[in-house]
Every structure is written in C-alpha cells, then in structure tokens.
Design a protein that fits this description.
Length: 282
C-alpha cells in the first residue's frame, strides 16, 4: 500500500450514525485492497446536511453515503443524479466527479446482486412487502433488472398504490397492489418475496410479517432486508416451509461494494466485506 499523509476521504452522513456498521466494512475493504482511503462516519442532523456537504467539498472528499434522514433532501445539494435515484427520488451514495457531485441509489443494486445467487430476476414475479425507502429502491431496481411483475403489499394501501404506479410508469415491469388483510398467502405467480420492512430486526427478533407459510412452494425465494440478526424468524420459518432464503447482509455487502466501485474504480473483494460485517454485527 502506498502511504501518504493525505489519504482519500469518503464517509457517511446520518442521524443515528453510531449504529451504522458500514464503517467497519469500508475500513476492512480499503485495507484488503491496499487503498490509501479512509471512511468517516458522521452524525449529521437535518439542519446540518447542507454545511456537511459544503465541508466535504471544501476538504476534497471523494464522496459520501447518506442514510436516514437525508436520502431525499441531499438531492438539492448534488449536481446530477442517476436514473434509479431520479425514479426513486432518493440518494444514498454521492460521488465527486469532474462535473461535480453525482448522486446514486445503490440500495436496489445491492439487493438485486444479493438475490442473483438464488434467482434470475429476468421474467420473475416479485412481491415486495413494505412501501418505504428500501421498498422503493428494491421494487424499481428489480423491475429494471427484468422482473415481469412487481406487486406491493403495505399496511397503508395508498402508499402501496403509489409505489406500484411508479413501477408501472418508470419501468417495463407491470406494477400491482397486493391485498394485505391478514396472513399473506403467496400465489403461484410469485417467484420472489421480499420483506422490505424492519420487522424482525434486533432487538425485536421474535417478530415477523405474517404469511400463510403453507402457500409457499418449494421453488419460492424469500429475501429479508433485515441485517441483524442474519437469520430472522421470517427466514427460519420460510426455510422450514421449503422456501429458499436470502439474508439482509448480502444487500449491505453488495451495496458497499458498489459504493467502493463508484468512488475508487476498484472491484472490492466481497468476501472480505462480508467477514467484516459479520464480525461487526456479531
């Protein structure tokens, strides 16, 4: 590793930054790839976002992540955004270029990369549970990856309708709303079920979205975005019902890898990223 007294700097702006394990993955990856880069995890409240971006610009940062509550508001501080970020109206990764700050949304890319080991999105029928920021990024990116139909189930039916309409209008997939008035029964047209809510996350590990698990076929894939614990109650129960499962840590790992690629141009070792994430959370 070529060392200097002026490493390249990237970081993260969020509220609740102390709970963000991304810094552990980034430090491990930069060391593994022998990159003289550092990642700074910053607690930034709503009123501090503008000054934080100005500070990053003044100090020559190469980019930064944005998490809750900044993913939408940061758009006003960047010079351009990617197609996915424009559709979702949310940015979680900003890259410094010769044309200024460019905002990306790597949440969906991270998710799609994580599910490819179990299912080809092309032509798939997908059921997304939830209608928040993660659900938007996942629904849009899985549709852009070739899914034939993306249905949305949410307690707030209007939010589910809005996300389904977005999928319909902005992608080649067909968007639909899935009724949620009891345990969710999974029809045969669905190949992939995604829990895009925080239900089941530590410390409430005994909670899960209610499904009719008898309706789950052996070819079904069930994915959870919850990273901690790695195996949620939903995934354990779905696996017992015969479904294949994908944990939420894969999404975080692949998202981090995409961020590193956008910032540095290097393709990071995802095994090193996963090991660092597991160690940080366990």
């Amino acid at each position: 590793m070529k060392r200097s007294f002026l490493p390249e700097i990237v970081g993260s702006f969020s509220t609740g930054a102390a709970a963000n394990p991304t810094v552990a993955m980034m430090a491990a990856s930069f060391a593994h790839e022998q990159l003289d880069w550092i990642y700074v995890n910053c607690e930034v409240d709503v009123d501090g976002l503008g000054p934080a971006v100005e500070g990053a610009q003044a100090m020559g940062w190469r980019g930064f992540n944005c998490s809750i509550p900044h993913k939408r508001r940061v758009i006003e501080y960047v010079d351009s955004i990617s197609d996915t970020a424009r559709i979702c109206q949310a940015v979680n990764c900003v890259v410094r270029t010769s044309d200024g700050w460019v905002g990306h949304n790597t949440d969906g890319v991270g998710f799609v990369d994580s599910v490819r080991s179990a299912i080809d999105p092309d032509g798939a029928g997908v059921l997304v549970v939830g209608a928040g920021g993660a659900a938007h990024a996942i629904a849009v990116e899985i549709a852009r990856a070739g899914a034939a139909r993306v249905e949305v189930a949410a307690r707030d039916r209007r939010r589910a309708e809005q996300l389904a309409e977005l999928v319909d209008a902005a992608t080649s997939a067909s968007g639909g709303v899935f009724a949620w008035d009891g345990p969710i029964s999974v029809p045969a047209r669905v190949d992939l079920v995604v829990n895009a809510t925080p239900v089941g996350m530590t410390p409430k590990t005994d909670e899960m979205i209610e499904f009719d698990f008898d309706s789950m076929s052996r070819g079904l894939v069930v994915a959870d975005v919850v990273p901690n614990p790695a195996t949620t109650m939903l995934l354990r129960t779905a696996e017992q019902a015969g479904a294949r499962t994908i944990d939420g840590r894969g999404m975080l790992v692949n998202q981090a890898a995409e961020n590193i690629r956008l910032w540095t141009g290097a393709e990071p070792d995802r095994t090193a990223l996963r090991s660092a994430l597991d160690a940080a959370l366990e």
